[in-house]
Fold these 3 entries.
Entry 1:
Amino acid sequence: MKALIRRRGAIAASFALATWLPAAPVNVTQHHNHASRDGLYIDSAFTPQAAASLSRDLNFDGTIAGNVYAQPLYIEGGPGGKAMVIVATESNNVYALDAGSGAIIWQRNVGAAVSLTNLPCGNIDPLGITGTPVVDLASRAVFFDAMTTPDNGTTKKHLIYSLNVDTGDTNSGWPVDADATAHFGTTNFTSSSQNQRSALAVLGGYLYIAYGGHYGDCSTYHGWLVGISLDNPSSVLAWATGVGRGGSWSVGGVASDGVNPFIATGNTGSTTRWSGGEAIIRFQPSPIFSGLTNDYWAPPNWATLDSEDLDIGGSGPLIVDVPGATPSKLVVALGKDGNAYLLDRTNLASRHHKWRKAGSKLRENPTAQLAFTFGF
């Protein structure tokens, strides 16, 4: 189902800083900077002239332990007024680094990561924190999922953490054990067969975490979207695909238009009845999936895509607003079939447009997160 996620870090990593400093507070609290996942970064100090004179700060030493798959985040106004870089690793280490020097402000290990030899399949070794965390500035909390083991791999747990972003202390009521709390009908969450590779999101007082399976499609897993109340982490709601597989595993994870969370799902094990896979799905807060056709879109050939392992969920949904257009509230999907799809996100069943370069596909098996910008 899934292509290999490439490593973006090493056991010892350093972060390069420019010779300029931002003129106003600029926080990067989540993957691609916004809940829409548009990848747009605006900093008044980052002008073409400033970019032309960028250079690496060789005095910056951000040495950390563990492979880095998650996007580092940038938070201003930390202890002593310092800006921080928040980094999470596959060794289950979380760091707050001084953005000016790389010095460690705080660090926490949240438990032993799981060796690949103790997993049914996969391509990440060890498996710890993979999905990009999210920071809620209002509560000064950083949230992430960690695959942990208390007994050298016999027991495996997806634990969802909330740490104080200024101290690294675990917030009250956390972590949340996904195995113990995530259920949908008769389907129960099983950590050993699930992987958490997608970026997390905070929306309307809820934390959202999406799950898929391991590389190799082994064991019985489902696509999951889990929602946790920020005010009451014991309150957990979840949705899962109706049959096996259908993972939500794209790097962009949960996207939002500020009201509803959206996810993309991959291929399921069924080609006779649609059961949540190969789709863009819009949820009501908590999350709740209505099951109505205006709240999901699956391409007409979803069964063929299912059988050929061509996931619509290879790239996460991208939320786009185009004022003056009809429709103007859009979502973009990019599938492993090499096609891009433009959807009306207010009524996903109403219309869609498929496009690709004439005579060719956009790319075979795209798995990177989309980004978007436009001008008038």
Entry 2:
Amino acid sequence: MQAFSLFSGPHIVTIILTYLIIAAILFWVSNQSNEIKKNAEVSIGVLLITHYFMQFLHAVSFDLSWQEIIPLHMCDFSKLAIGLYLLGYDRRLFHCALFWGTIPASMALLTPALTYGYPDPEYINFYYGHGLILLGVGMPVFVLKERPQFADFIFVVKVTLAMTAIIFILNHLLGEGANFWYLKDKPNGDTIINLFPSAPFHILGLIPAAIFAFYLTYLPYQLKDKISGS
């Protein structure tokens, strides 16, 4: 199996195809009847929840550490949150998924921590799962015309900081193979986290970077409000 190479031809094609497929689905659904839109919501929600609970099979199939059986990565939480929201649960779940999923999932697509490239099954599953998160978040944003307020940004930051403390403790309790949210160590491969100090001091850059990413997600709405004077 060919080793993964960042921004190689297959990697660039995968990124482009992922975003094109997401855009095409969202464009098609947005021009359908309310009944079809609702069916699409539920269908995507089911796919997200199913993929979330298939983490056990993925960890076994891809020979990952036993700790990876537990879906505790930020993208896992985003996947669960947007899946539940599309199935009719609380609107706060949309806010969490929007901030947890938009830039983090996009960064994962651009700089994945993968060992092998296409057509390795883990590579395909990685892009399917993260692409599904962006599709799920795109449904309320582009089809249902949902949006966050600044108070929602603050709410998600507070929730994330509280969860960061919990995940940090869990990483150490679960042992060597646990590195959820990359709080214990930097991920393998070339990612933006490599610009931060060596572990464990990389957290000093990681947390502000995450909050800044959340703010960048909210920024278009803030600019729109200022332009419209609302």
Entry 3:
Amino acid sequence: MKVGIENAAIELEPGQWLRLKGAAGVRIVCRSGTVWVTQEGVLRDDFLRSREALTLCSRGVTLVQAEGRAMISIAARPRINAATATLSALPVAG
């Protein structure tokens, strides 16, 4: 599912991930749980816990994955070319 991300609150199930593209300047706030954030071209990954936030710097692809159940909010700064997001679930190994 593709969604616009002006200001969004998203609940992520365990293993579910959010793919952002062109999201430099977007701020991700972890409202509950823990999420893993990896940005294309950035050498470090980030883990956000409840009440922690991160402003993205990559113009490439960013993945946000839930470590257990998590709630995040996304605030995009106003700009002409809005970032896009794709919400997906990883296949469950069985």
